[in-house]
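Figure 6 in text form: structure in, sequence out.
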């Protein structure tokens, strides 16, 4: 340990930092890390009062009252409701009070109240930066697209890493653990996949196969960063990996040394996607939901424009985005609602959109189905056609 880390552990920088350092050191010991690594940025998930309840709130407030302060710039995941539209979302008063107290505790510790799961669109992170991130889609994006280094930490660990400014030097913080062991080949269904636009389903299949391993993915044509984030979010729902090496996308592939012949090769056929879609084939007359992960400003603008050009929304469309993406956009399209600061999974969607949904997000399909919603998973194209009354 460095002298500064020892001092933190001994309580020289206060009680809260000592607690945080102790936790990080313990995790480092368990994971076999030789030392800690300074992190440049932290992102904390699990801050929706709907999910963490009183217990989580007390934990955050006790840390804040012990004087905890984030040692690095720290952003936070979506909360339980849109801070400006809680009436439309029919949010319970207890949840409102609880969420505001959560945000107050995080603010006192120095967090930027970004309330978005796409920090990679807004924060300055670069290749080989060490991060302490805890939202799976953000971790996958940071590692796989930016080439930054972060483990897929739980929310509490990322919080302690943010306070201590350190992470265990283990897992994906080490070059040798970023080398793939599987090759997932979509080449045989490349054109069918491109034509269908079933990116969410492809991500769910990838996650199921890759599990906790690092995979090299071949034969996927993802048009832009919005499609990449939709794919990776779905990977993170069914798999526990924090890194997928996508040919044509991942900068790691220019640097890592490995022999492709040593990888176990798995060739994907269409039946894998069909099986995935069958899991999410519920919901007849459903509300369309999208924005998991949060939509970028470009995506939002494109969708609104598409809907306008096609005669407007005949069915209800509920979208989720960061506050930064929404700000300044004209959002007056009838039947289209855009919520910021929250999402369909961490808010109580049933209160304002019912329990039957159709979505283009593999991750949302996975989590909403596990919460008992009737869910249909479709492509973005199909979703929009459904909204304007051109699809079933
Ligand atoms: Fe983001 Fe919520 Fe999906 S946090 S990745 S929109 S489940």
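Output sequence:
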């Amino acid at each position: 340990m460095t002298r500064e880390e020892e001092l933190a552990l001994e309580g020289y920088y206060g009680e809260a930092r000592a607690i945080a350092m102790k936790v990080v050191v313990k995790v480092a010991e368990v994971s076999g890390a030789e030392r800690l690594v300074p992190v440049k940025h932290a992102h904390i998930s699990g801050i929706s009062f709907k999910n963490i309840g009183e217990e989580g709130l007390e934990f955050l407030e006790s840390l804040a009252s012990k004087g905890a302060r984030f040692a690095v710039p720290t952003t936070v995941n979506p909360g339980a409701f849109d801070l400006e539209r809680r009436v439309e979302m029919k949010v319970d008063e207890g949840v409102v009070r609880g969420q505001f107290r959560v945000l107050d505790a995080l603010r006192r510790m120095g967090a930027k109240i970004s309330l978005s799961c796409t920090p990679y669109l807004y924060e300055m992170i670069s290749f080989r930066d060490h991060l302490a991130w805890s939202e799976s889609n953000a971790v996958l994006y940071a590692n796989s697209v930016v080439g930054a280094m972060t483990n897929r930490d739980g929310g509490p660990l990322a919080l302690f890493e943010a306070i201590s400014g350190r992470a265990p030097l283990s897992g994906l913080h080490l070059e040798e653990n970023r080398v793939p062991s599987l090759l997932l080949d979509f080449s045989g269904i490349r054109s069918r996949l491109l034509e269908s636009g079933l990116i969410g389903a492809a991500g769910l299949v990838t996650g199921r196969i890759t599990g906790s391993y690092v995979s090299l993915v071949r034969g996927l044509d993802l048009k832009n960063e919005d499609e990449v984030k939709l794919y990776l979010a779905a990977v993170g729902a069914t798999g526990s990996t924090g890194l997928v090496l996508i040919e044509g996308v991942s900068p790691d592939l220019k640097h890592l040394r490995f022999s492709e012949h040593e990888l176990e090769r798995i060739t994907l056929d269409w039946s894998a996607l069909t099986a995935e879609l069958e899991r999410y084939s519920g919901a007849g007359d459903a509300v369309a939901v999208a924005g998991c992960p949060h939509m970028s400003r470009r995506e939002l603008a494109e969708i609104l424009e598409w809907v306008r050009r096609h005669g407007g929304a005949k069915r209800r469309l509920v979208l989720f985005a960061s506050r930064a993406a929404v700000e300044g956009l004209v959002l007056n399209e009838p039947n289209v609602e855009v919520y910021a600061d929250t999402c369909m999974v961490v808010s109580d969607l049933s209160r304002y959109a019912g329990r039957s949904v159709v979505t283009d997000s593999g991750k949302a399909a996975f989590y909403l189905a596990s919460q008992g919603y009737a869910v249909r998973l479709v492509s973005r194209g199909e979703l929009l056609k459904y909204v304007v009354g051109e699809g079933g």
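Caption detail: Residues 77-78, 117, 137, 233, 292-294, 320, 343, 345-346, 363-364, 367 surround FE3-S4 cluster (CB under 6 Å).
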